[in-house]
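Course exercise 7: structure representation. Students receive a sequence record and must write out the corresponding structure in token form. The form below is the worked example handed out in class, using Glycosyltransferase involved in cell wall biosynthesis (354 residues). Read each field label carefully; the graders check that inputs and outputs are placed in the correct fields and that the protein name is recorded exactly as given.

STUDENT ID: A-19
EXERCISE PROTEIN: Glycosyltransferase involved in cell wall biosynthesis
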Amino acid sequence: MRIAQIAPLHEAVPPILYGGTERIVSYLTEALVSLGHDVTLFASGDSSTSARLEPAWPRSLRLDPGTGDVLAPHLLLLEKVRRVAHTFDVLHFHLSYLPLPTFSLVDVPFLTTLHGRLDQPELQAMFDMFPQAPVVSISRSQRIALPNANWIGTVYHGLPENLLTPHPHTQPTYLAFLGRISAEKGVDVAIEIAARAGLPLKIAAKVDRADEAYFRDVIQPRLLRHDVEFIGEISDAQKAHFLAGARALLFPIEWSEPFGLVMIEAMACGTPVIAFNRGSVPEVISHGVTGYIVDDVPAAVDAVKRLDALSRGEIRSSFVRCFSSTIMAQRYMKIYVALAQAAKPPALRQIASG
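STUDENT ANSWER:
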């Protein structure tokens, strides 16, 4: 099929450091290309892909301090796609609701994967305005806040199978926190869990401008402990060593996380996850197999004591069976084909599905 992947412009595809949505767009694009499809990636010009790259803005917006209005580049991106939409069998957007007004009027099948939180009240009004716009969730839990949207599927995130792998000769010695510094991610709770469990904690995380005050007032004082190490942002090349060296990844989220990519990154390394029972966690973690799902700090501390009961080999195998990027791409392909078949005249349906 001729597939367009349309990514946000905030980060390169894939991101150099932190960046969830653009990272998934990269993994999906590469997997679709490996499956033999004709894929065009609309993204920032500093992106890297084996697909055809159509740069919609010269540089990722986070790395371009001269960009004051981040909406304008995205509107230009949408117009760039609209002008060539007829050359594709399906358009796959990763831009939340931005494509809905334009592409609901374009006679080309499209879908939007919703990557973020959906519990803002204004979102309900947007999807009420476009009730036929096809959207895909990244977990069943994500749909709860927006039950009346036109959900056409749920596709879990996936990673390239050999991007992150176990380090069998590494002796895990610490607990890990990976991701972004913010109150909803529970970094302060992770520090408390590690302290109560008597294990050191290493924190590899990004600090957004919006969270600088939280980092300064809440987290930095806790970093004075000798058993807490703040590393900062790390790249994919550093993640495998960081995660494989951990006894467990702590994921004490304080909100309904739509997916939580760091959980499957840990699983890819054979590292168990101790996560609070919120959002997508029960869909991603198999309790007692790939980690422990807990309700509070005491239960998390108890889970740390039971880590030796888990098989790191089985954790890795569970990742391969459920969360590879190839599996993700195959699940999206079923959705693409269904959309193309429904949109085209009967004589063209066989071509669309071929």
